[in-house]
Design a protein that fits this description.
Elements lengths: L1 H19 L3 H5 L2 E8 L4 E3 H14 L2 E14 L2 E16 L2 E18 L2 E18 L10 H4 L7 H9 L14 H14 L16
Parallel strand pairs: 1-6
Antiparallel strand pairs: 1-2, 3-4, 4-5, 5-6
Length: 207
């Protein structure tokens, strides 16, 4: 059990380090073949996620991740990991260079197959966020109507990403509410041996 938790924690750390450094070949090894990723700006297969990140990397998109502690529950060949994290994204907002910091958790579904643990589904939980001009003397004015379209947990991150041209989903799990309650229920079902993909899709299907 301890060995499994250590291996899973290593996968969680590798995800952040390899994604943020553009090490795409090693980043792909974190996932199982049917792996899926959900995020504010992306919902789809791991293969599609890697390709989308590569395109963003080549355009100069800056998204970084910091990790905190993890809680990992292992039952047989399945596991659920929750890891405290922050998402840091820098971009121009109305011609003002800004940093958005979003605090939350990675909620991960893992499975042991073919001699290794791998990630089957990652669904972040977005708890709170903020936006700050890089230059503290800069004046930033936000569109309150656009800001109000998104949940409190990631509304500033969504605001910035929308201005960059991404289609941001408004129903991601937050600290409380039916979305996160549903996610926890899926986690319990996964550990209990549920059949099918935990994201509720067929393997390899688009979002």
């Amino acid at each position: 059990m301890i060995e499994a938790r250590q291996e899973i924690r290593q996968l969680i750390e590798n995800w952040a380090l390899w994604r943020d450094s553009g090490d795409w070949e090693r980043f792909a090894t974190v996932w199982h073949d049917d792996g899926r990723m959900e995020a504010t700006w992306f919902q789809g297969t791991a293969t599609e996620f890697i390709a989308a990140n590569r395109r963003g990397w080549e355009r100069g998109v800056t998204i970084l991740h910091l990790l905190g502690g993890s809680s990992i529950d292992v039952v047989g060949t399945r596991a659920i990991g929750q890891t405290k994290m922050q998402i840091h994204q820098r971009a121009a907002v109305h011609d003002v260079s800004c940093d958005v910091v979003c605090t939350g958790r990675f909620y991960d579904f893992f499975e042991h197959r073919d001699g290794r643990w791998g990630l089957v589904w990652r669904q972040p939980i977005y708890e709170k966020d903020r936006i700050d001009p890089v230059d503290p003397a800069a004046v930033l004015s936000l569109d309150e109507d656009l800001l109000g379209r998104f949940p409190e947990g990631y509304r500033h991150l969504a605001y910035l990403q929308t201005l960059l041209g991404y289609e941001v989903v408004a129903g991601m799990p937050g600290l409380r509410g039916p979305e996160v309650a549903d996610l926890y229920a899926r986690g319990r079902e996964w550990l209990a041996g549920s059949t099918g993909h935990p994201a509720g899709v067929h393997a390899g299907s688009p979002a």
